[in-house]
Amino acid sequence: MSQPDADWTAWGTPPSPRYEALAARFRPVFARIRAGAVARERSRDLPHEAIGWLKEARFGALRVPEAEGGFGASLPDLFGLLAELAEADSNLPQALRNHFGFAEDTVGSPAGPRRTHWIERLAAGDLFGGAWSETGPAAVGTFATRIHRSGARWGLTGKKDYTTGSLFADWIDVVGTGESGEETSVVVPAKAPGVEVIDDWDGFGQRLTASGTALFEDAPAIGEPLPTAERFPYGPAFFQAVHLATLTGIARAAAGEVARAVRTRNRTYSHAAGARPSADPQVLQVVGRVHGLAYAAGAINGQAAQAVQRAYEARIAGLPEAESHAINVAAEIELAQAQSVLTGLVLEAGTILFDALGASATRRGLALDRHWRNARTIASHNPRIFKDRVVGDYAVNGTEPPFQWKIGRVPEPRA
Q1: 0.70 exceeded by pTM
Q2: Judging by beta carbons within 10 Å of its beta carbon (0-12, 13-18, 19+), is residue 138 exposed, middle or buried?
């Protein structure tokens, strides 16, 4: 019997004819990242070096058109590569989620000085973080952070939470309230005076994403504010698709690790169905189930990516508003459906892999628990119970999905 290839996969057809050539540029980097993933997890060592490798390879320029110095990846290509990166270390694609959101908005934006400026920075390999959510006293749908005039320039003052990836970034994309009470956004240099990013994220999963606090005190903004209403309308679907790609990579990592563990395991039980775990049909069934769950997650991820690609194409084609809106609604519904089902698949994979192993598999040094912990943490963003309700309301009543996910304090009850 031939020895299985350590890199064997059966994840289906690549997302595009050029995908393999594109992926070949980055797989050596992914391999280096994978080699240190468990050690980083055990010691909670933030992946500054790994982010640096990706930056050096200009991974962040994937969506920039080739004619403008990037790689011209389609959205299915992008989400396929993010799944591969997540298979190596799921902290990395989440840390870059805000970067790719900013890149997506920029790539599809109208020609002009603003687009030219940021496309050049993206093509050069610069990385962007994000600071949107707040946990302070602001009510749902509002921001306490202020974007204000500061002499001849614009300034930014406030506190943001869940600023994923900003600690690794060159620039931070921030949403706040403008001088007239409008919701708007600016970009600030991550290392500028008046900017402080704190690594205080203490979640039990995705522990290395630097999803902590950012403080801004009259931080200098670059250029003019951009109202959020003018930003890419399929943003919610895009950001959810990044989560789906990350979850897909987690399932694939779980599948690969359980197969390798069973292959080399030399302890068994008196009541086992085979002489060795690698010959035990019940154990092999578990391994096969985990691989099947990972395959199904990847298939859903690929299908969802096509929906986001259609929304991007509608934006750049300048379709009539009604037609473009219908495509965005369809993308949002597809992503909501995908999120609900795919999340369950990956959480199951992270749970049942232990059924193929012994108690020794729970040792902290192996960090096999990270797959479930990381998947559960990602699944807690934009909770899936609300997505199921949104899909049901659309299916039954034709109610369009909301296009902004916002959190904030619940209003105090009236006396």
Answers
A1: yes
A2: middle
